[in-house]
Design goal:
One of its GO terms (cellular component) is mitochondrial inner membrane. It comes from Histiostomatidae sp. XFX. This protein is about 70% helix and about 0% strand. With about 300 residues, the protein is mostly helical. The longest helix is centred in the N-terminal third of the chain and has 44 residues, at about 1-45. The N and C termini lie far apart (about 50 Å).
Length: about 300
């Protein structure tokens, strides 16, 4: 029995690494087909056809796009700070992977730990650094302006997002995600407090730089914002990290506000809300965006936290 126990315990690190790799591959495949779903839904909402040519009505379009990006040549710009320029996408990818690593389903106890939400808050607070590295490392006007916008926006809405998370903790009486899910057996959190859910979704869109809060990448003003100088593989890494964060925020929202059971379906519905908002709403003015954060969302979040305390 001791020999078997020793052999199994020696295999646990290998099993953990293998399980983590499987989860990472699943997230990457999910990002690929999430982009396909977005393009299909946007085509339907705009009364046009989406991707429908590449193998079986366009189902392999994301794979062909990935091959195209990864096969492009990497070019070194003389005016860019290449160390910071290269580190920005890597930091973005690391933050996204660590976010999903909190919920590694098989061998990690982090998802059952009382520090799960604190780890998520800590990882969210790292996002301004990736914008800083990409904008400053690119050393161009549009990239720097886009990164400054992104940093200001993320910091502004992150404060409100953390206050809402603390309100949910006080409302449910637990830091553990499983207990938060268990408190919603009778009724979902989004039905108990509809304004809280709407405010949460709005802040998630601002945190992920999605329409109508996409000032960091506004094409009509900044060409492509902080990632204007990126192409090929590095652009693919930025793209994957952005959509991976959208999927994670949808997954986290489904756990906190929609209870347990059918989590995958609920996550897909919330991802669909991100797409629907992108197709339906115009970009808000930048000063209105900041006023919305500091003059409306922050007082509401503080009042809600004071009420639940």
């Amino acid at each position: 029995m001791g020999i078997w126990g020793t052999s199994i315990s020696s295999l646990l690190p290998i099993m953990f690494i293998f399980s983590s790799l499987i989860s990472l591959v699943g997230v990457l495949l999910g990002v690929a087909f999430f982009t396909l779903m977005e393009r299909k839904i946007m085509g339907l909402m705009h009364y046009r056809k989406g991707p429908n040519k590449v193998i079986l009505s366009g189902i392999s379009q994301p794979i062909s796009d990935a091959i195209k990006l990864l096969s492009k040549e990497f070019y070194k710009m003389s005016f860019s700070k290449m160390t910071m320029f290269s580190m920005g996408p890597v930091v973005a990818m690391m933050i996204m992977v660590l976010m999903w690593g909190v919920y590694e389903p098989y061998f990690s106890n982090m998802s059952k730990s009382s520090t799960t939400i604190l780890v998520i808050i800590a990882l969210m607070s790292l996002s301004p650094y990736m914008f800083f590295l990409m904008g400053w490392g690119s050393n161009t006007k549009y990239a720097l302006m886009g990164s400054l916008r992104a940093i200001a926006q993320v910091i502004s809405y992150e404060v409100c997002l953390v206050l809402l998370i603390l309100s949910i903790i006080y409302l449910t009486g637990s830091y553990k995600m499983f207990k938060i899910m268990g408190t919603q057996m009778g009724m979902w959190m989004c039905m108990i407090n509809v304004p809280l859910f709407l405010c949460w979704m709005m802040m998630c869109m601002a945190e992920s730089n999605r329409t109508p809060f996409d000032h960091a990448e506004s094409e009509s003003e900044l060409v492509s914002g902080f990632n204007v100088e990126y192409g090929g593989g590095l652009f693919a890494v930025i793209f994957i990290s952005e959509y991976g964060m959208i999927m994670f925020l949808s997954f986290l929202s489904s756990i906190i506000f929609l209870g347990s059971g059918m989590t995958l379906l609920k996550t897909m519905v919330l991802c669909g809300i991100f797409i629907w908002v992108r197709c339906s709403f115009p970009r808000v003015r930048y000063d209105k965006l900041m006023m919305l954060s500091w003059k409306l969302c922050l007082p509401y979040s503080l009042a809600l936290l004071a009420f639940y305390i």
